[in-house]
Recover the amino acids of this structure.
């Protein structure tokens, strides 16, 4: 773990001039296009143009939609597994080196990760059995299912 | 001009201060969570910048762990905020005062 | 000699057993998710924590972690020095395991009708795993991860009574302050890492001793200050103590016992380890320009005074115990305040003894509150009036806990405070020693007030006979017996504590 990173030498000003020029061009092109179209286009005010989706659906309600709380569970499970992949990363980096070296046996490099994933799987299995991914039913749905022969 | 480690520290301190400011001024529990995330990420910037500076990787690996823990913290926190909303019909952290402060 | 042939990681068995038991609980619950066999769950939890306790005691007796010069098997490093198993670690693993076992047994009755049994017990075990790992963590990385592993289940446990407003409010405040303090803590770690380039405690110390951190004195100082903030949260000391009264009052009483005993002890063990291993007093002082023990001297005095004065004004028994728990954190902080370049073994050992005795007497006191909540007698001192006639055994145990907490000789609480007092005097901290005496005298007032209410006062209302829940009674009686048994056993405990402290400071 004693690699030394070297900071790239960016003291020369030329690089920065190029970056600045690129940024300038990047801003000027859209602004220029907007300015040209503003000067050229005819002005025909009409109410239908102000609609959110011209000749499309008429939007209803607010942009702030409330999601069903049951998505919370799904999101939570996703979040856990999504983030745990981050912990696989340092392991994956050293994995090939460790396999090739004689100092570390395959069990020593593979074992901890298998254990880690196993623990996660036990958790997932538990959550599944507890019905975390099951869509809860409204009382009415439960009733109709209950009355079904 | 070189981007030295001190710039990263300044950036992370600014981020940390923003997070702290958010915690002290916002009453919404979700805003509070976001502010805490900012503070944790400020620490991550520090860790990675210092790992680069010192030339060892332990800081970078620790940053990965911090990210995972931050996610876990959010998961638990959202659950508690959900309970807060169910019991008090609000996510304002100053609302629950059934006990004397 | 069979012990030596085992791989080094097996020395972490006390913590690993707790984790394994938590997994077993998950599997049990996966097999029958709808069954409410709380006996099986509580029994498994208690068995797991007792196994952890047994292994830790066995290791300690077998000399694992004792330095080889003292005839032991040497301090054992695990996972490239990320963990270390020494006497300090085993000592605190024992405290955690004992408290977990008591809490599990008591919860059997307290959580009887609760919907989330398996979740409750596995969260308790996961938190205990975190605390046990905190005892052995030897690098800022593992310390932070173990700390979070202990904290996250605790947040959930405090607010597990989902429809109880107090529980949710306590959990929320605990979580908010916990999240804030962990953010501050990890930022402090990043600054210490920046100043020294290492996260492993001995390596940090080596850099500081070599004087290489001197140019970054400011960063290091700020980092240390932020680390103190993290410890203050976990140990419920000033300035991050606000959560404690709310969380302890709102939480189910066994959880209050768990947090105020085991969690506090675990917070102290990382504070002890970090400050003795990573920041040698004299060299750190020359790098940051100020002695870090100064911070602990101030914190100890402020914490114990604030805790005790606030406790004296309470009418709610649980809240009184919560504030008194803050006061006891102040006593234990003397252990860090008294460390100096050449000494401090006695005072640090005394703080460890205090946390050990506290593990029994405070857990017992909170479990009595759990019993009272189980009976539904009410929460204030008046509501407790005259309980002694109805439930003499439990109330006798309560008297033992209260007098031990107050530090009446010859109970265990007296001896640990006595050692703290002499240790503080030896370290030249006369103000701290005086504050300790004054606060102990004050604490006698509110502790004896509870005993008086239970034994002497006439009951406000006539009560029917009180039930005798087996689990709660068993836990309370065991805690009381252990508090008393510590009288003859205090010598060995004190020796172990001082040995562990000496090994740390050597």
């Amino acid at each position: 773990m004693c690699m030394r990173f070297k900071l790239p030498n960016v003291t020369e000003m030329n690089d920065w001039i190029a970056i600045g020029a690129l940024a300038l061009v990047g801003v000027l092109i859209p602004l220029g296009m907007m300015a040209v179209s503003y000067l050229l286009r005819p002005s025909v005010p009409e109410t239908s143009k102000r609609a959110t989706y011209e000749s499309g659906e008429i939007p209803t309600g607010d942009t702030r939609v409330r999601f069903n709380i049951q998505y919370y569970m799904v999101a939570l499970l996703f979040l856990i597994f999504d983030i745990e992949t981050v912990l696989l990363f340092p392991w994956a980096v050293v994995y090939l080196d460790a396999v090739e070296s004689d100092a570390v046996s395959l069990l020593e490099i593979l074992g901890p990760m298998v254990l880690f994933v196993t623990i996660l799987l036990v958790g997932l299995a538990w959550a599944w059995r507890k019905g975390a991914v099951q869509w809860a039913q409204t009382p009415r749905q439960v009733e109709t299912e209950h009355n079904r022969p | 001009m070189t981007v030295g480690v001190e710039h990263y520290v300044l950036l992370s301190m600014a981020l940390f201060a923003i997070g702290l400011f958010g915690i002290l001024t916002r009453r919404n529990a979700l805003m509070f969570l976001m502010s805490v995330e900012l503070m944790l990420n400020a620490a991550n910037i520090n860790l990675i910048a210092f790992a680069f500076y010192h030339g060892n990787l332990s800081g970078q690996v620790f940053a990965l762990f911090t990210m995972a823990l931050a996610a876990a913290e959010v998961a638990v926190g959202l659950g508690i905020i959900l309970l807060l909303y169910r019991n008090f019909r609000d996510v304002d952290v100053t609302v629950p005062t059934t006990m004397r402060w | 000699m069979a012990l030596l042939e085992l791989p080094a990681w097996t020395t972490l068995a006390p913590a690993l057993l707790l984790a394994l038991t938590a997994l077993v609980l998950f599997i049990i619950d996966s097999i029958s998710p709808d069954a409410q066999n709380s006996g099986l769950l509580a029994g498994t939890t208690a068995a797991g924590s007792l196994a952890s306790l047994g292994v830790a005691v066995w290791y300690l007796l077998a000399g694992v972690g004792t330095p080889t010069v003292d005839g032991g098997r040497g301090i054992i490093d695990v996972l490239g020095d990320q963990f270390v198993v020494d006497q300090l670690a085993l000592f605190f693993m024992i405290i955690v395991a004992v408290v977990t076992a008591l809490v599990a047994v008591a919860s059997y009755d307290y959580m009887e009708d609760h919907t989330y049994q398996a979740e409750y017990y596995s969260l308790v075990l996961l938190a205990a795993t975190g605390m046990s790992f905190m005892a052995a963590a030897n690098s800022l990385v593992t310390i932070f991860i173990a700390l979070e592993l202990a904290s996250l289940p605790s947040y959930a446990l405090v607010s597990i009574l989902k429809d109880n407003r107090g529980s949710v409010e306590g959990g929320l405040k605990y979580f908010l302050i916990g999240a804030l303090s962990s953010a501050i803590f990890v930022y402090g770690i990043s600054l210490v890492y920046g100043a020294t380039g290492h996260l492993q405690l001995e390596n940090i110390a080596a850099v500081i001793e070599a004087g290489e951190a001197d140019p970054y004195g400011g960063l290091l100082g700020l980092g240390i200050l932020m680390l103190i903030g993290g410890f203050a949260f976990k140990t419920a000391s000033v300035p991050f103590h606000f959560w404690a009264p709310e969380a302890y009052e709102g939480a189910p009483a066994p959880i209050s016992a768990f947090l105020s005993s085991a969690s506090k002890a675990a917070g102290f063990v990382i504070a002890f380890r970090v400050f003795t291993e990573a920041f040698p007093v004299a060299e750190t002082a020359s790098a940051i320009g100020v002695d870090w023990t100064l911070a602990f001297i101030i914190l100890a005095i402020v914490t114990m005074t604030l805790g005790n004065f606030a406790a004296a004004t309470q009418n709610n028994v649980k809240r009184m115990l919560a504030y008194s728990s803050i006061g006891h954190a102040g006593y234990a902080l003397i252990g860090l305040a008294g460390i100096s370049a050449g000494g401090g073994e006695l005072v640090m050992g005394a703080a460890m003894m205090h946390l050990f005795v506290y593990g029994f007497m405070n857990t017992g006191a909170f479990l009595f509150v759990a019993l009272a909540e189980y009976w539904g007698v009410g929460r204030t001192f008046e509501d407790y009036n005259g309980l002694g006639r109805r439930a003499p055994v439990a109330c006798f145990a309560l008297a033992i806990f209260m007098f031990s907490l107050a530090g009446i000789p010859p109970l265990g609480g007296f001896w640990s405070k006595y050692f703290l007092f002499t240790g503080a005097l030896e370290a030249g901290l006369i103000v701290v020693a005086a504050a300790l005496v004054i606060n102990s005298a004050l604490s006698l007032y509110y502790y004896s007030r509870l005993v008086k209410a239970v034994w002497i006062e006439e009951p406000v209302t006539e009560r029917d006979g009180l039930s005798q829940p087996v689990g709660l009674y068993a836990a309370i009686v065991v805690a009381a017996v252990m508090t008393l048994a510590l009288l003859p056993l205090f010598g060995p405990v004190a020796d172990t504590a001082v040995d562990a402290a000496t090994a740390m400071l050597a």
Observations:
- DSSP finds three helices and no strands in chain B.
- The mean pLDDT of chain B is 89.
